[in-house]
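Good morning N.,

You mentioned wanting to compare the apo and holo forms, so I went ahead and generated the holo version with zinc ion. This is what I fed in:
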Amino acid sequence: MSERERDSAHGTSRTIEIFDTTLRDGEQTPGISFSLEQKRTIARQLDKLGVDVIEAGYPIASKEEKAIVQSIASEGLSARVCGLARVLTQDIDACIDCEVDLIHIFVPSSRIQRDHTTHMSEEAVKEQTYAMTKYVKEHGFACMFSAMDATRTDLEYLLELFKTAEAAGADILNVPDTVGVSEPFAIYELVGAIYRAVRVPISIHCHNDFGLGVANSLAAVKAGASQVQVSMNGLGERAGNADLVETVMSLSAIYGLSTNIKTAYLFETAKMVERFSGVQIPITKPIVGENAFSHESGIHAHGVIEKSETFEPGIMTPEMVGHRRRIVLGKHTGRHSVEKKLSEIGMFLPREQVDEILERVKELSAGGKKVTDDDLFTIAEVVTGEVSKHERVVELKELSVMTGNNLIPTASLKAIVRGKECCSAQMGVGPVDAALKAVQEVIGDEIGGCIELKDFRIEAITGGSNALAEVIVGVKKGDRMVTARGARDDIVMASIEAYVNAVNRLLQG
Ligand code: KIV
Ligand code: ZN
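and this is what came out, ligand included:
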């Protein structure tokens, strides 16, 4: 078995090169245009990430594009900087002017693309490939040759074309699945055939039209490819290119192959490209999506709190990729999640209070609200500040309010005051005023004496019309003054809760 064979398909000792095309194919995503400064910043970040090659652009496209490629090539990055060119001298000259490290020449090779784009015969494509590969090499540059639309090119002809480029001195041959129509088994066969036919390294460039970009790239590596062409956040023509993060993590965590990527920078790089491109990363995107390491359901969160591998891959952790694990509160939340989050801020509460908090979290999220940590902590403060059930003088049972532009705001309520059921209906200047008057009436009737309202403040904990409202109320009877809080997504309920809590405290003992 030759050294190359040993080193190939199933070997785990290989280091796979990462060729990033975010700035070239990625920028071809409809609607995306990076500024010079953004491209330079992304290039530096990709370099910090450890990519082997940065395809900086297509210099012949415009004066501006050429200036950008030139500028990135002069940055002194550790990554090799690559420029794209058709098999035309003027394109190659533009790359030469930019002093890139690698010139990537491409030519349509499939029948459909030859007939309808370049109108070149098979023979003409071969001749031009030979001549232009030589041209690049004679100018002292490294050369990558791509047979565009390779996966739809007649295999026999494709092999001849690659051999032609190899004979002319190409340093690396690229196999583009230009319209993303291949699948892993076909790619494995194709790359395997090319691998057996030539001696130079093979690169793979997969588009994601059927969502198979990453799977196809992995199959190519299995078949002997030593470089993968990928982009950040999978940006690229149409459905994009194989995603860098997913490809790298699959190569290392699943296949046990190495790359030069410092994976702890993956998340921040994805976020930078998200910001500059304006293309939002979906929450469910593998590895870098907001939910990639988030857990809400009681069983999952409980398992993960005890041992993360219960409901995470384990071979990949959030720390490895610079992300974070989140326990999310919602309608599926369980007691363990609430206890864990509260323990992080030093709150260790009795079971009865945790259950009360949990019930309120579920109520809040059932109304469609996203429950934030701040919401949880506010609810916890309210619940822990409440007078215990058996010491309460006043217990609110039912409250309804009516308001509108042609109505006088009216509230009616039912409460238990010192064990006795009481009802009241009141009007007010607004729904909160009406509800407060109704509570004051039932309390006043039962306990006598005057309770003065001294302080009343409303605060929204989080933004949005469904924000959790926190109300702080101060009440006074004689010389004694107490304050208490209420927190609900309904502002009237939060106000009444705060008032009742304050009264209970005032009358406690
Ligand atoms: O998809 C493609 O074929 C390309 C080539 C330029 C490599 O992007
Ligand atoms: Zn492409």
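The chain has a mean pLDDT of 93.

Happy to go through it together on a call whenever suits you.

Best,
F.
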